[in-house]
C-alpha cells in the first residue's frame, strides 16, 4: 500500500497530496479537487468526530475468527465496506486516467474482493456513460449514483442505469450546492419528498438516498420509498461547517428504529473506523478518497489490496473488542 500511495501521490500531483493523515487540513477550500469546501470544516469534522471515539478493548472471550459478512439489500458482501461514488478524474483528481479505467479499477476491485462500489455522475456526459459501460461489463455489479437533475435528465440517466443491469441505484441529494457543477453551469436543486417518491415508484430498482444529515430527512427518505439511506455530508464538499457524520449518525439511527438500511461515510480511514461507524448505528460504511488513491496508484489490483488491508484491520478490531460478527457490534464497544 505504501507503493500504491506513493504512485498515486505522483499521479495526482498538484491536486491531492495523499497525506499520511487524510483529514482535510492541507486541502481546505480546494474544490474542484479533493478538498472540503470553504474552510474545510465539514471534511475535518468527519475525521475528528471519528477520532474522538474510543474502543473498549476486551480480551477474555473466545472470538478468534470474526465473521465480517453482511447482507446488503439481499446480497451478501464479504465485509461492510463499499466504495463511495467518486468521479471526474480529470478535474477532481488531476490524474491522467480515463474515467472508464478509473471506474473499472474501483468496481472491478470491489467485485474481486467480495463487495460493491459506487460510480459518480457529473455535468460531462462521459462520466455517467463510462460508469454505465463498466457496470454493464460487470453484469450489473455496481451502484450508479445520479444527481437530482431536472426530470428529463434524471429519468434518462435512471433508464440508462437500469439498461446497464444495475439493481441498486443512488440519488446523491447532497450534490445540491456542488461548486463544480455551478462552475460548469449545471447546478442541481433540492427535491421534495413527493417528487422523490414519484421517481422511486417508477422503477423496479432499490434506491439509496445519499446526503442524509438529520433524522427528519432520514424519515422522509424512507417514506418516499428509499431502500437505504447514506448518512453523508458529501465529504465536506458542499456545505461548510456541517457536523461530522459520526456525530449525527446515532440520532438518525435512533429515529429510524430499524426502519431500513443505513450506510454512512465521512472520515473512515481504518478498519477500526468501520467498527466505530457500525457501533454508532450504521449497517455498512462507504469510503471515498482512499479508494481513489488505490485505483489511481494501483489499478484494479490496488483496490483489492486496499480492501484486504481494511478487512485485516477490521478483523483485528473485532477480535480486540470481542465481536464475533458484524451484528454484534453495538454501542457497547465504545467508551
**General shape:** globular
Largest sheet: 8 strands, parallel, barrel
Helix content: 40-55%
Number of DSSP E strands? 10
CATH topology: TIM Barrel
Which ranges are low-confidence, i.e. pLDDT below 50, for 5 or more consecutive residues? none
In terms of DSSP E residues, the strand content is 5-15%
Task: Reconstruct the topology from this structure.
Blueprint: H1 2-11, H2 41-52, E1 70-72, E2 75-77, E3 81-86, H3 89-93, H4 99-112, E4 117-119, H5 125-137, E5 143-146, H6 151-163, E6 168-172, H7 179-183, H8 193-202, E7 206-212, H9 215-223, E8 228-231, H10 245-256, E9 261-264, H11 271-279, E10 284-287, H12 289-321
Parallel strand pairs: 3-4, 3-10, 4-5, 5-6, 6-7, 7-8, 8-9, 9-10
Antiparallel strand pairs: 1-2
